[in-house]
Structure formats: structure tokens, C-alpha cells
Amino acid sequence: MLNTVELLGFTVASIQAAIDAAAPAPPAAAGAPGPVMTGDARAAIAVAAAQAAAHGSGVTTGSHLLLGLLGDTGTAGRALKAAGVTEVVTPAVLSALYHGVSFGRVNLGQEADAASLRVMLLNVLDRLDRLERQIAPSP
């Protein structure tokens, strides 16, 4: 999921800062139980699984989880809103990121806003960089 938000222009540091602000880590207590899955987390995972199924995917990916978290009213949702992720990420943007570019199709009949085009260009640039590293000898 972090790779997806990084492709959209959000740094890991900005996401971590928003998470820390939304839910500061409590001091660890000896013998304390590990992390517990909250109802909000379960709901986000259920939405993510539904998104994956709706897209015909047998695997729930980070992008599906991100879609599940967009509507979250708990800590994760507040952190994503504070970081500005919810202003940019839409199902159309994620679809453009993974389907429009991956399969060489850009359907301008659908929502093709500046963010989705930016994502597509970043993905293409990333692929070109990887190809260049494979072809060009290391100095």
C-alpha cells in the first residue's frame, strides 16, 4: 500500500507522521498482548476483499486495502485524511495506475484527472528506469 501512495506523491515519512499524530504509540508494557484487530480494521479488510472480488481478483492487494481505508472513520482513515491521501486517491486513479498503464490502455472516456495521469507517467518513468538499469552497465 505504501508503494501505491508513494507513486501518488506521498512520502512514507508524511504517512508515518500522520499515523503518529492520529495514534501515538503507547509505551510497551512487559507481558502485554500483541496488536489487536479492531472493528474498524476488520471493516476495512472486508471492504478491501469486496473491492478485490469486484475487480475479479483472487488476491486482495495493497490497493484494495487502500480503497477499504478511504472510508475508514477510525485512526487509519484519520491519518490518510490528515496526509491528504483521500483527496487524491479514488477508485479511478487506482484503476488507471494498475490497469490503464499495466495493459497499455488509457480510457479518456472515464475520469482521467490530473492525478491519474500523473500516476500513469510516474509508473512509466519507473519502468523506464528499471529497464535502463537492466540494459546499462553499472559504473
UniProtKB/TrEMBL annotation:
SUPFAM superfamilies with a match to the protein in the record: Double Clp-N motif
Pfam families the record matches: Clp_N (PF02861)
Organism: Phytohabitans suffuscus
Residue stretches in coiled coil: none
InterPro entries: Clp_N_dom_sf, Clp_R_N
Boundaries of every Clp R domain copy: 37-130
Protein name, entry field: Clp R domain-containing protein
